């Protein structure tokens, strides 16, 4: 009787459930909403600080226009993306595709060059890196040359790209490829050298051949590290393709930035930079999702150390 009275005197407190369980959200959606929220807070703080500096008169609107200026008139900024038609003599910005279609064409042109160069560099670098460690003669013939060319800046290869491929998509793709290939070969070799020797010894004990050890032990072991390196090189690929386009090898986002510089249009510069940043962020998010699908055998907590 005394116990019942004591329970009645104390109010019943329901256990506090996590936010996702209270709203019955899927398990994977809760971290995504949290990351999205923090992303918006981070970008909002940066944009708010920029706007505050403009309001206080510290940032000159003619040189550093705040976001509400260069993002306030999308149609006006988009019409400058009609760079493809200006390759033809006697055409101007008022001819050709609409502003929205011009932006889409320009974005797809730059994106295609980045993905093509990245795919070529990734596939060939893995093959060459594995081949260097698999064949001793191949290592002696190629590794010194690769080590010699790795420190060369991609900008130094620009005249070579133009001499070999002229104007168009090919030189920009070549620039992306050459900027990533040598470093990714060296990274592949480093990943192979870092494989746990116990895995290889166990495979040898079970009678695996050299080819089987590379195919079923070494390559799966180095794949997480290679994908992390490839993700970082994705940003480098964007940097290189913008430089190639800015020098006139083909129309794209880099040429739009060069046009903005030549016409002293800071609003167009920051508008294009924002667009490039959004593209890079979207591709990075997509790449992380692909990584999680490919590396299904890794635990979730291991993915954080690899940038997943």
UniProtKB/TrEMBL annotation:
Swiss-Prot/TrEMBL keywords: Cell membrane, Membrane, Transmembrane, Transmembrane helix, Transport
InterPro entries: MetI-like, MetI-like_sf
ABC transmembrane type-1 domain residues: 103-291
Domain of life from the UniProt record: Bacteria
Signal peptide: none
SUPFAM superfamilies for the chain: MetI-like
Compartments in which it is found: Cell membrane
Membrane-protein topology: Multi-pass membrane protein
Transmembrane portions of the chain: 38-59, 114-135, 147-167, 173-192, 213-232, 267-290
Classification via CDD domains: TM_PBP2
Keyword Transmembrane: yes
Membership in a protein family: Belongs to the binding-protein-dependent transport system permease family.
PANTHER family: ABC TRANSPORTER PERMEASE PROTEIN MJ0413-RELATED, ALKANE SULFONATE ABC TRANSPORTER-RELATED, MEMBRANE SUBUNIT
Protein name: NitT/TauT family transport system permease protein
Organism: Methylobacterium radiotolerans
Source lineage: Bacteria, Pseudomonadati, Pseudomonadota, Alphaproteobacteria, Hyphomicrobiales
């Amino acid at each position: 009787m005394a116990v019942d009275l004591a329970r009645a005197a104390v109010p019943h407190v329901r256990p506090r459930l996590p936010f996702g369980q209270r709203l019955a959200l899927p398990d994977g959606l809760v971290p995504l909403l949290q990351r999205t929220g923090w992303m918006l807070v981070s970008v909002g703080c940066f944009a708010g600080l920029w706007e505050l500096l403009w309001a206080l008169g510290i940032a000159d609107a003619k040189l550093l226009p705040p976001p509400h200026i260069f993002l306030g008139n999308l149609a006006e900024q988009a019409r400058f993306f009609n760079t493809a038609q200006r390759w033809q003599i006697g055409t101007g910005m008022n001819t050709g595709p609409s502003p929205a279609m011009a932006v889409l064409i320009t974005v797809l042109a730059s994106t295609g060059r980045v993905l093509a160069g990245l795919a070529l560099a990734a596939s060939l670098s893995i093959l060459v890196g594995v081949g260097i460690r698999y064949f001793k003669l191949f290592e002696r013939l190629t590794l010194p040359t690769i080590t010699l060319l790795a420190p060369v800046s991609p900008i130094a290869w620009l005249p070579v790209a133009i001499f070999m491929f002229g104007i168009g998509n090919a030189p920009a793709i070549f620039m992306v490829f050459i900027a990533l290939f040598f470093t990714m070969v060296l990274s592949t070799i480093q990943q192979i050298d870092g494989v746990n020797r116990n895995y290889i010894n166990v495979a040898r004990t079970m009678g695996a051949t050299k080819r089987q050890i590379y195919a079923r032990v070494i390559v799966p072991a180095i794949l997480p590290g290679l994908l992390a390196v490839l993700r970082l090189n994705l940003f480098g690929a964007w940097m290189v393709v913008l430089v190639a386009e800015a020098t006139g090898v083909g129309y794209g986002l880099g040429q739009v930035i060069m046009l903005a510089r030549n016409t002293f249009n800071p609003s167009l510069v920051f508008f294009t930079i924002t667009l490039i940043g959004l593209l890079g962020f979207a591709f990075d998010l997509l790449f992380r999702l692909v990584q999680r699908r490919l590396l299904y055998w890794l635990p979730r907590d291991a993915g954080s150390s690899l940038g997943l």
